[in-house]
Amino acid sequence: METREIIIDLLGSDLGPQEMLEGARLVLEDFPDVNVVLAGPRDLIEAAGLPEGRYRILEANRTVTNLDNPIEAFYSKEPVSVFRALEEAGSCSSVIGVINAGNTGALFAGAIRFLLADRDVRPCIAAILPTTKGGFTCLVDTGASIDCGAQQLVQFAHQGTDLMRKLYKLESPRVGLLSNGAEPTKGNKLVKEAHGLLSREEGINFIGNIEGNKTLSGECDVLVCEGFAGNQVLKNSEGMAVNLITEIIKYGKTHNVPAAMEIAGYLMSRFDFASLGAGIMLGTRKVVVKSRGSCKRTAIRNAAQILINLADDKTIYESID
Amino acid sequence: METREIIIDLLGSDLGPQEMLEGARLVLEDFPDVNVVLAGPRDLIEAAGLPEGRYRILEANRTVTNLDNPIEAFYSKEPVSVFRALEEAGSCSSVIGVINAGNTGALFAGAIRFLLADRDVRPCIAAILPTTKGGFTCLVDTGASIDCGAQQLVQFAHQGTDLMRKLYKLESPRVGLLSNGAEPTKGNKLVKEAHGLLSREEGINFIGNIEGNKTLSGECDVLVCEGFAGNQVLKNSEGMAVNLITEIIKYGKTHNVPAAMEIAGYLMSRFDFASLGAGIMLGTRKVVVKSRGSCKRTAIRNAAQILINLADDKTIYESID
User: Fold this and answer.
1) What is the mean pLDDT of each run of 10 residues along chain B (321 residues)?
2) By Cβ atoms counted within 10 A, which residue in A209, A224, A307, A314 is the most buried?
3) Of A147, A188, A231, the CB nearest to B212
4) Whole-complex ipTM
């Protein structure tokens, strides 16, 4: 069997290619059966001193920043790392997936061009988030499809259902629709229309609207929303977790409560959004994991674990309790 | 000087009129200079044994539930408590404001009919939320204006600016726009359009986009968003605070860490969304406070405190640190 490869796009993350390279080093250390393909500047990669025979290079010096137009970059003559990575994933059988921490729009455009599984289904980006019941909810979409239509929300419901069925062996994943109230009459125009469609859709176990304070309550296995709202849920959940943990540490210091550090540490592992917040692209022929722009080397290592588990149809995280 | 009155709409809350009546009792106990006007069923109110001379009754047996059509209820022949409350507030000089915990759409429709401050400006519902820097951010809109346009977001920016200037004596409140990325190119169609308008708007200290993980970071004094997104921010922040506090208590029990209760108690007071999440209607001639549907009696008492402070142009909450 040929060695399986993971492509890591070194460019586009907030902390720069060196941090991504250190992430690649951790991947090679922790997964001896997997090699990496590094998309980025050749000189940087060669200077990193990674173990010989464990990596190959896709040379590319250009990236797409959040200020660039992804479509314009797409037609650039200079090789762009994210597009090289996705093209290679599409054409090379040993590659099991791609890790990227750059511009979402560029990743999305490239995935549609090189990795689409079904010509009629747009991909989306899901996240698997920890619920208070100890399990996980698949939030979809988390920001790739902004201003999308009701039919697309139905598509997200199917994509999320497939994922949770595959990963967690759920027979009939419960699908909730993010809204501003539990009643079917609540919602913006898009949500009201999607509510009607989901209620009639076959193959979907639709349980109705879910309010913002119940997103991580474990009431549904798949939480469907348009990308702008999903991005708010993901980032707001993360932001609040960070806020409360910071408050606990401050309180522990000012009130001399040593146990505060222990509790903060526990919460940090339980609500580890740096890794948990990683986006999983659905609807592609290979696994694509979208790490946060600010991700550190350990998050890249964790993204590789997610990617390998997905490629093997294994659960990404273990349930708690 | 005539005694100032607060109208409390007894109907429409999740816990029923008895809990609202107990809230009214706390208001009368804690604010001896203020009387209450109770909108609801006469027999219930008379049976409550509230102090004589401290209350009067607006008889109304009908409410608007979340399953009703607010507009239809508006033309009902039977008196509806929320409309009676708002009409009385509009016509009676001794009334300083209204507290309601029922259907937002009905409250909104009634406020437009009876209490509009400026015929050309739609009201909105703001919330004052605690930031990690110890101050407060005014989130506007929190769910009254769903599917609104970019011009309305500009209006929210003005309304929030006026409120924070008045309450916290800020000379030039910093206005942020909720988006899915910090860069001006990020956002849905509405947010991109609003970004352009806000950048050019006079009288607004616009500081750009704010991402979902920074909503309570204290980077802005006013956070502008469309009602559906604002509702997510409000409820998601609350939900995550509840989730983490619940985890802390569980951890304290299973790992025998008594300090966990102390820390949970501190966080509950610091991120007290039951009271802090109260909606404040902007753009009305009298103060209207929208309590959460699930609010308990103490939240009604706290809503009265907010209402009195607003009527007196005083800060609602004191800054921390």
Assistant:
1) 93 94 97 97 97 97 82 83 96 97 90 92 91 90 92 96 89 97 92 97 98 94 97 92 92 93 91 75 94 88 90 68 42
2) A224
3) A231
4) 0.87
